[in-house]
Design a protein that fits this description.
Keywords: NAD, Oxidoreductase, Porphyrin biosynthesis. By secondary structure, the protein is of the alpha/beta class. Among the domains are: 103 residues, Rossmann fold, CATH 3.40.50; 30 residues. It is 38% helix and 16% strand. The protein contains 6 helices and 7 strands. The chain has a 5-stranded parallel beta sheet, sandwiched between helices. The longest helix is centred in the last third of the chain and has 14 residues. The protein is elongated and about 55 Å long. Bound molecules: ligand PQ2 and nicotinamide-adenine-dinucleotide (NAD). The site of nicotinamide-adenine-dinucleotide has 19 residues, from helix 1. The site of ligand PQ2 has 22 residues, from helix 1 and helix 4.
């Protein structure tokens, strides 16, 4: 059984630290920023690869610190993602996060993670997060591609229509639920 609890975070209101500036850091920063383009992110590393810096050009709010990690980098953070090539550093940061009650993801290292990044399907306002419980990120990626393919782009029109109807519905809560269930009966799985 997959016991992970999925939530959808408002990263523009949180303060996220990414430790590292190389390939894996780019992967994780891009997962954060493609999903949440206004995410408040700070990245710290003595070396940033050109690809990472080029990607970050699109996100001027991201703070880039070109130096080694310091414990004070954890001050004021809500989330921490470690993505360096130094396992001992990751173990130390994880311990410091535990002391501070900070949630920490150590890229590609399940035993040090408080949370995993998911594989994300996006169609307009619809977002689906996939987890394989860490069993196979590659299979998660395949399932993402499959869902991206089968979910029609028109789903956004359906969502917008439902939002409009939802705002106009009067009556008690149960009556609203009944009306909304009726309206959506054929929306997703048309036969
Ligand atoms: C979903 C996604 C999100 C993201 O990172 O954005 C993600 N990994 C992605 C891709 C990917 N990662 C890896 C490969 C190479 C092939 C392979 O190993 O399969 C590929 C595929 C590729 O790149 O093509 C390597 C890898 N990853 C982990 C380990 C360690 C281990 O398993 O022990 C190793 C071995 C490292 C090594 O060999 O040393 C661990 C984790 N990776 C997770 C998330 C978490 C579990 C998610 C879940 O429950 O499925 C977890 C537990 C922690 C975390 O990192 O958060 C993203 C898909 C994006 C998309 O949709 O395209
Ligand atoms: N690249 C991949 O796709 C991949 C796949 C599997 C495993 N790995 C493993 O993941 C690790 C990272 O790989 P990578 O390709 O991102 O490496 P990389 O060389 O591109 O990046 C390493 C980053 O860690 C930073 N770093 C080192 N010490 C630091 C410190 N004290 N404080 C802050 N940052 C520090 C470096 O400045 C650099 O930005 C490696 O151990 C690698 O073997 C990578």
């Amino acid at each position: 059984m997959n016991e992970l609890f999925p939530i959808f975070l408002k990263l523009d209101r949180l303060n996220t630290l990414v430790v590292g500036g190389g390939n894996v850091a780019l992967e994780k920063a891009s997962a954060l920023l493609r999903n949440s383009p206004s995410a408040q992110v700070t990245m710290v590393a003595p070396m940033f690869r050109p690809e990472t810096l080029e990607f970050l050009n699109e996100y001027p709010q991201v703070l880039v610190c070109e130096r080694a990690f310091e414990l004070s980098d954890l001050d004021g953070r809500d989330l921490v993602v470690c993505a360096t090539d130094n396992r001992e550093l990751h173990v130390g940061i994880k311990a410091a996060c535990v002391e501070r009650h900070l949630l920490c993801n150590v890229a590609d290292t399940p035993d040090l993670c408080d949370f995993y990044l998911g594989s994300i399907v996006q169609k307009g306002d619809l977002k689906i997060a996939i987890s394989t419980n860490g069993k196979s990120p590659t299979l998660a990626k395949r399932i993402r591609a499959f869902l991206e393919d089968v979910i029609p782009d028109e789903i956004q029109e359906g969502l917008e229509g439902m939002e409009a109807v939802r705002k106009t519905l009067k009556g008690d809560f149960q009556a609203k639920i009944k009306a909304l269930n009726e309206l959506t009966k054929d929306l997703v799985f048309r036969k």
